What we know:
Pfam families: tRNA-synt_2 (PF00152), tRNA_anti-codon (PF01336). By secondary structure, this protein is an alpha+beta fold.
Amino acid sequence: METITISQAPQHVGETVKIGVWLTDKRSSGKIAFLQLRDGSGFFQGIIRKNDVDEATFEAAKHDLHPETSFVVTGEIAEDKRSKFGYEIHINDLEIVGQSDEYPIGNKEHGIDFLLDHRHLWLRSRKPWALMRIRSQVKLSTMEFFDKHGFTQFDAPILTSSAPEGTTELFNVDYFDEDAYLSQSGQLYGEAGAMALGRIYTMGPTFRAEKSKTRRHMTEFWMIEPEMAWCHEEESEEIQEQYVAYLIQDLIDKCPTELEMVGRSVESLKPFTELPYPRITYKEAIEMLQKGGMDVKYGDDFGAPEETFLADQFNKPVFIKNYPRSIKAFYMPTDPEDAQQVICADLLAPEGYGEIIGGSERSYDYEYITSKLEENGLSKEDYGWYDDLRKYGSVPHSGFGMGLERFLSWVTLQDHIRENIPFPRMLNRLRP
Ligand code: 4AD
Ligand code: MG
């Protein structure tokens, strides 16, 4: 007899098979018990009729099985039109593998702190299951997209001596009596990669010692950071929008059930696959905000209320271009139209989900970069290698970083970004 997974049930209708499962819930009436089952690949229902199994098995199914008990069922696969998954199993044997204690997560409402304390178990529930599947698909689609566009996957180190995005949010590590930091961004290393391989992207965890408690910030989050030699900002923005549209189309095609389980309709995602996305300048954004009665002036950075207001003016993601130099990173080149500004863009998600991508052109001028490093107090010892990239055949190049969980929280409509990573790390959370 074949052992299969729940996801393979459609290919085995009418056959008797074995599946290793966990119980999520059960109900019984008289001579029949309904077991809600999951096996990691999916969820479906198992039906036990008193007449189909021996007395002890039926009694065990009715009384002894706690949620999360693991067992192997043997039975016949049938179609089940009423279930989301479309199939069920008519059980004729059941072999318990691991008994479960009284399971702490039930059908009642639990507070978020309780759920996060039990994250190692909460991951088994339906919504986290769907969210993790969507996350996995987005990483796979990322690799496919960049592969199709001629990018090489490139790994930046996590232990570093540099701070690309400012020195205030660093996690210090004691590195054999030297100071090291957990990487804030793979970008500077990605630039070295682009000079070697043309077009690269990194995908890995990045760290910010964010003291702020917001629903968009974690201390450990994943970033996808493409870096492209011989590329100006305009072309980089085109790649960014194609990438976002590609990810969404792939989710529509490959994860419709998961999207439905998290409450995101496929219909509502479709408009975001249509390009181009609108582009406005930082100055235009300031005007819009002021006209809308918001208290901002030129030079201010945008917080959540400003980002949400701006995003609400459009029904698609919107690029905000060319911010003032004072609020952006040292490596960004001067905007030829206004020397107070730099050539860059942030992509804001619609529906109030904030900045999902930050990107820019990178100055490829040796004098400019060395002077900016100096102004920012960044040492030759730590950044001399970065200068070298401008010394040996420097070329125009651009890149961007997409926050994986920011993107995911938008497409899955999660109020808080912590739902979109297996084990979130935040100001007050290091466990489990
Ligand atoms: O805008 P950021 O700081 O840009 C960079 O790090 C550049 N070096 C990227 C590059 O050009 N290669 O961060 C990029 C993105 C943000 O747009 C946001 O989506 C996400 O990373 N992000 C965070 N996500 C979760 N928690 C945090 N604390 C985040 N900080 C940034
Ligand atoms: Mg940013």
